[in-house]
Amino acid sequence: MRACTSEAVRTTTVSWPDKAGPEWVVVVVFEPCFWGFSFFALFFRRGCGGRAALRFWLAAFGTDFFDELLRDLFATMARRWPRIDCGSKDEMPDTAHIPVLEVHAIAARQAFVVLDVAGTPLASSHTAPGQYVKAGFFDDDVARPLALCNKPGTGTFELLLKVPDVRRTQLLGMQKGDRVDVGLAQGKGFPIEQARGGDLWLFGVGSGIGPLKAVLDVVLEDRTAFRDVVVVYGVREANELAFRDRFGTWVGHSVSVIPVVSRPATRASWDGKTGHVQHQLPRSFDKPAQVTAFVCGLPEMEKAVCEQLLERGVGPDQVFRNW
Fold first, then answer.
1. Which of 155, 175, 268, 270 could share a disulfide with 238, CB 3.0–4.6 Å?
2. Which domains does the chain have, with CATH numbers?
3. How far apart are the first and last CA of the chain?
């Protein structure tokens, strides 16, 4: 049999609580062919222990067709088996059933969720702004990585979620005390200490503003430790700007906030900056060696920002991502 590369697989774990038994593993392999893609599944039995690993990797084939296919598969499995968690044991070493403190709409197609992790191992795993967790909010949902929007040490996990229309009512209908499965904080986050003493530029698009808000939570505690702090935040339409109620606080702490709308509905609906975030840099920096940049968003945006910074003397070792 032809070997499959790691890019072709992704893991999902199915658990049978309080029941040990043989494990069954299914590997679904997607292959390109002349009409598009074909796929086949392999089922095999592995040991005992009551857990089965299902490996799927669709990063290279992230089409709506495959997304819907997997949603249907996971929904069927969720109805048949009690619980589905995404990730292997190594990827998600610990999870907890965490209560919701708050859920509300924060911008178009986005929701802000606050979870109570005080006194749990999850709280101590949060050590740097910009880390992420894996969380699943619905029985038929797959746990996915979500960046934390708050600084460490608060006893809460704040999350900014994109909300598809089909999930909007269900998510916003969650009440305080409802519980969701959440994993430990993961990832290196942003190296905030490296930015002290110099200029800090934050670039984010869409929900990428979430981990940058966590950085600002830390910066505002010791604002004099940084020189210029600039946030360049891009969205497609003005109604997608999240945390607008925080802009005044940031500006009040001498943070420059530059919201950028790439596709304003009408000229009357937006009179601010338009275009893309990479076009909002100054022509030059007076001290480029003292500039630190944190970027979070689409790969194309991150690449374009890095290119623009490099042209202005800001090297790759001064630009950081949170993953």
1. 270
2. 6-86 (no CATH), 95-183 (2.40.30.10), 192-320 (3.40.50.80)
3. 34
Residue 136, pLDDT score: 86
DSSP 154-221: SSEEEEEEE--HHHHHHHHT--TT-EEEEE--BS----HHHHTTSEEEEEEEGGGHHHHHHHHHHHGG
pLDDT of amino acid 207: 95
Strand, helix or coil at 252? helix
Q: Give the pLDDT band of residue 72 (cuts 50, 70, 90).
A: low
Pairwise CA distance, residues 129 & 152, whole Å:
7
Distance CA 214, CA 205 (A): 15
- Per the CB < 8 A criterion, the answer to whether 23 and 16 are in contact is no
For 255, phi then psi, to 5°, come to -105, 125
Read off the pLDDT of each residue in 119-132 and give the average, rounded to a whole number.
96
Please answer whether residues 322 and 211 qualify as being in contact, where contact means their C-beta atoms are separated by less than 8 angstroms.
Answer: yes
Residue 19 pLDDT > 60, yes or no? no
3-state secondary structure of 26: strand
270 C-beta neighbours (distance < 10 Å), count? 18
> What would the mean pLDDT of 253-268 be, rounded to a whole number?
92
Q: DSSP per residue over 118-162, as a string?
A: TTSHHHHH--STT-EEEEE-STTPPPEEEEB-S-TTSSEEEEEEE
Say how far apart CA 202 and CA 212 lie, in whole Å.
Answer: 7
The model's pLDDT over 286-316, given as tens digits with 9 standing for 90+, comes to 999 999 999 999 999 999 999 999 999 999 9
Question: What is the C-alpha to C-alpha distance for residues 103 and 115, in angstroms, rounded to an integer?
Answer: 9
Amino acid at residue number 245: D
* The pair of three-digit structure tokens given for residue 105, joined into one six-digit string: 């709409």
